[in-house]
Amino acid sequence: MWQKNNMAKIFYDHLVQIEEVLIELDNYDLDNKEKEEFISLIDQTLNEQLLNTILSNLPSELHETFLSQFHQAPFRPELMDFLKKESKVDIEKTIKDEATKIKKEILADIKKSQKP
Fold first, then answer.
1. What pLDDT digit, counting tens, does each position of 33-82 carry?
2. Containing H/E element for 99?
3. CA 89/CA 110 separation, integer angstroms
4. Which domain holds residue 13?
5. pTM (two decimals)
6. How many domains does the chain have?
7. Could you identify which of 11, 19, 40, 63 might form a hypothetical disulfide with 79, taking C-beta atoms 3.0 to 4.6 angstroms apart as the criterion?
8. CA–CA separation, 105 vs 109, rounded Å?
């Protein structure tokens, strides 16, 4: 099975559980290169949508500050502290909820692609 540690570390990884998606991919006859490509696409999709969610809940005047810090060191836990302080919602819950929604959509797409 593919390991999450093969992907880039992001400060919100502890809120995002995609093991179910990885297990579902294991049901397919994919070589390592194909699996890596799928995982990369899933990771990219999650990260783009979660960044959109974060920015949607952060005052626009702080977007540049956040994105600059994120670009320099996306793994830094201090990014979550910044978001908790500056966002208008419970950002951890918002990220977790959005990740769950995205994961369900990805799983549905994968299962839809199975041949009968």
1. 998 998 999 999 999 999 999 999 999 999 999 999 999 999 999 999 99
2. helix 91-113
3. 31
4. 4-113
5. 0.85
6. 1
7. 11
8. 6
